[in-house]
Amino acid sequence: MNAATQAVYARSDLFREVFEGFPHALLVLDEHLRLLHVNRAAAGLSGAERKAMLYRQNGEAFHCVHAEEHPEGCGHAPACAKCAVKQSVLEVLSGMPLVQRNHHALLGSHGHVRELHLRLTASALRHDGERLVLVMLEDTQAPPPMPWLMTGKTVFHQTTSP
């Protein structure tokens, strides 16, 4: 690695911008499924403010309908045994380097339930000796965030003058 490349990698603000600007939801979770970091896209997907999501369990932060089915909250309802996020985090922490699967989520707030079809990718992280999991959630029913990347064509916005 040359000196210029090392300088780029040493800039934590660059990686913060990459994390924040990534077009899909990114979550950093601990072994208890608590959210330690979420990007803007994750907050947008959940519909909650980022501060309200942090240090809460995944299902509670995203308003999963199953998180309210049991008095102990997220992870304790019968449906939680099949939760793709929970399964993926546990698999990665048990040694699998990467997990990918589809996830069907029912998120509810204020009496309204949204059904999401997500592509989930989870991978292991280690930070300050702590084992963490990075999870990406991609809404498979949403239009691509940058459609010109999918088609290889440049998109021009035409403006008309009055």
What can you see in these coordinates?
The protein is of the alpha+beta class. It has seven helices and five strands, in the order ααββααααβββα. The chain has helices at about 5-10, 10-20, 40-45, 50-55, 60, 85-95, 145-150; strands at about 25-30, 35-40, 100-110, 110-125, 130-140. A five-stranded antiparallel sheet has the order 2-1-5-4-3. β3 (about 100-110) and β4 (about 110-125) form a beta hairpin. The longest helix is centred in the first third of the chain and has 10 residues, at about 10-20. It is globular and about 45 Å long.
Cα shape: globular
The largest sheet is:
5 strands, antiparallel
The run of helices and strands is HHEEHHHHEEEH
Name the average pLDDT: 83
Q: Termini separation (Å)?
A: 54 Å
Structural class: alpha+beta
Cα-atom Rg, whole angstroms?
18 Å
Strand content: 25-35%
Strand order of the largest sheet: 2-1-5-4-3
User: Helix amount, in percent?
Assistant: 25-40%
Quaternary = single chain
| Unreliable stretches covering 5 or more consecutive residues | 155-162
User: So how many helices?
Assistant: 7
How many runs of DSSP E, i.e. beta strands? Answer: 5
Key traits:
about 160 residues, disordered C terminus, alpha+beta
Question: How would you summarize this macromolecular structure in one to three sentences?
Answer:
By secondary structure, the chain is of the alpha+beta class.
SSE layout:
Blueprint: H1 3-9, H2 12-21, E1 25-29, E2 35-38, H3 40-46, H4 50-53, H5 58-61, H6 84-93, E3 98-109, E4 112-127, E5 130-139, H7 147-151
